[in-house]
Amino acid sequence: MKLFRNAMTEWEKTMTEVELDKMEAQGCDVSVYREKLAARRAKEAEEEKRDREMWQNPTNLDKLEPYIATPRSTDTPFFQKVAGKAPWFGKNKWLKKHTEGQIIYVGVVDAPKYAWKGEKHESDTHQIIGVYALDEKHVRNVEWIQKVMSILKPMHEGKKPVAPGCEEIMDMIPDESNWDTIKLPENLSEGADAYVQRLVVEDKELPKGYLPSNGIVPHFYWEGTIKRIHADLYL
Questions:
Q1: What are the CA-CA distances from residue 32 to residues 29, 46, 154 (Å)?
Q2: First CA to last CA across the chain, in angstroms?
Q3: 168-220: per-residue pLDDT in tens?
């Protein structure tokens, strides 16, 4: 009995609204658990608010505007920062990539809590789950990206049921070995050519060494490859 009580106590620490909905649909009285969950969510919300205020990390995405049009000049700070030194071999391909590649905005759907804080991190690299679009209408549409983030995040946290077509995305998020690129279903994409995938960010390339408050991390995209753009270019 003690083992069962301990297991229940541990479960209460992670139980979600969706789990309680399923239990209730099976005829269980979950009113006590709903009260406990509501108290936990209120505490989490207060902690998130405190952290947002303490670790505000604004960016200025408008600074990337001069580099969006392609082909871009090789004489710009953007090219020099993103492209680096020319390789000994394949210089033409390297040049084409960095003068014609896309600047895209990646919205952070999930990341370690500490990655949002300016404290010293045990590791300077972090896995995140990002959503982004490749079509011209949505590729740098911050409002659309944040809307999708606000839909996917509650699903992952168990606050909302998983929308049709998002099952594969939700299975991928907690599986750190899953590096699939998953197309965002049409019922959420609003016509965008959009994708969700696991990415890696490094503190040294982020503004102030941690994730920006708006959850948008600019990346450079070329023929299926995607890499971070240094925060120096959008601060």
A1: 8, 22, 22
A2: 57
A3: 999 999 999 999 999 999 999 999 999 999 999 999 999 999 999 999 999 99
- At position 33, the amino acid (one-letter code) is Y
Q: Does residue 154 have a cis bond before it (omega within 30 degrees)?
A: no
What confidence tens digit (pLDDT) does each residue in 27-42 have?
Answer: 889 889 889 888 988 9
Whether residue 148 contacts residue 194, with contact meaning beta carbons closer than 8 Å, is answered with yes
**For residue 231, which phi and psi values (nearest 5 degrees)?**
-60, -20
Q: Can you give the pTM of this predicted structure? A: 0.91
Determine the Cα angle at 217 with ends 215 and 223, to 5°.
135
Strand, coil or helix: what is 222? strand
**φ/ψ (deg, to 5) at 227:** -145, 160
What distance in Å separates the CA atoms of residue 95 and residue 71, rounded to the nearest whole number?
A: 10
Nearest to 98 by CA among 120, 115, 81: 81
**Cα within 13 Å of Cα(6), Cβ side:** 3
pLDDT score of 4 = 40
Low-confidence ranges of the chain (pLDDT < 70): 1-8
Distance CA 85, CA 27 (A): 65
* pLDDT confidence of residue 1: 43
Distance CA 56, CA 213 (A): 6
Nearest-angstrom CA–CA distance, 172 and 197: 8
